Amino acid sequence: MMETPEYIEKLRIVGGNVALDFVNTEDGDPPLECLRGYDDLVVWSVRVGLLSVEEGERLAVEAKGRPGDVRAAYRDALTLRGALQGVFRAVAEGEAPTSRDLEILREHEREALSRGKLMQGDGGFRWEWKDGRDLARMLWPVAHAAVGLLTSGTLDRLKLCAGCYWVFLDASRNHSRRWCTMEVCGTDEKKRRYVAKRARIREE
C-alpha cells in the first residue's frame, strides 16, 4: 500500500485543470517542492485521478528495478512542469510564452498522442493511456490537458492567484475571482488588509 506524504495530502487541488494542478505542485515563494522524487509523482498522480490506486502500486513496484528509467521519468516530469509554468504564467499575465517552453510541450504532446488510444464510451470519445510499464505514463494526460486548455478558447479565465501565485481557471460568473481559494488566500488577503487598515488608523 502506497503512503501519501503529508505535503501531498495537504496540497490543494484547485487549478480547474490537471495541467494547472501539476504546475501548482511547486508551491510558494520561495518555492516548496511537492514532487521530491518519483514516488511523489506517482502518489500525486493517484490523488488527482491520473492513475488508479492499483496502477500506482504497479508502477511503484515496476520502478524498483529500473533506477535509470526512474531518474529519466522524474527529470522529464520536472522539465514538463517548468515549461508549463512558463507557458501558463506568461499567458495569465498577458505575455507571450517562450518558444522553448512551447517546444517542450509540443514534444510531450507528440509523445502523448503516439502512446494514447482514442476510445468511445457512453458520453462520447476520450483519450486513454494504459501502458502499464512506462514510468512516465502520467505525463501524457498532463501534456494533453495542457494543449487542450491552450487551444480551447478559455484562456480569458486563466489567472494567477493574488495571494500565492498559483495558476487557476476562474469559473466565477463574472470572472472576478482573485484567489485560488477564498478559504486560504482570500482569508489571508483580508487579514493583511485589516492589519494595514488598523496600522493607518493608529498613525492618524
In a few lines, what is going on in this structure?
With 204 residues, the protein is mainly alpha-helical. Helices cover 53% and strands 10% of the residues. The chain has helices spanning 6-9, 18-23, 38-47, 53-64, 67-92, 99-115, 139-150, 182-203; strands at 26-27, 32-33, 117-121, 124-128, 158-160, 167-169.
List descriptors.
single chain, 204 residues, mainly alpha, two-stranded antiparallel ribbon, two-stranded antiparallel sheet
Mean pLDDT: 87
Distance between the termini: 61 Å
Secondary-structure element pattern, one letter each:
HHEEHHHHEEHEEH
Task: Detail the poorly predicted runs.
Answer: 193-199
Helix tally equals 8
Helix content: 40-55%
Count the E strands. Answer: 6
Question: How much strand content do the residues show?
Answer: 5-15%
Using only C-alpha atoms, the radius of gyration works out to 19 Å
Would you tell me the structural class of the helices and strands?
A: mainly alpha
Widest sheet: strand order? 1-2
Q: Based on CA inertia axes, which overall geometry fits?
A: globular
Largest sheet: 2 strands, antiparallel
What features would you describe in this structure?
The chain is mainly alpha-helical and 204 residues long. It has eight helices and six strands. The chain has helices at 6-9, 18-23, 38-47, 53-64, 67-92, 99-115, 139-150, 182-203, and strands at 26-27, 32-33, 117-121, 124-128, 158-160, 167-169. The strands form three sheets. The protein has a two-stranded antiparallel ribbon. Strand 3 (117-121) and strand 4 form a beta hairpin. Helix 3 (38-47) runs antiparallel to helix 4, helix 5 (67-92) crosses helix 6 and helix 6 (99-115) packs across helix 7 (139-150). The radius of gyration is 19 Å and the shape is globular.
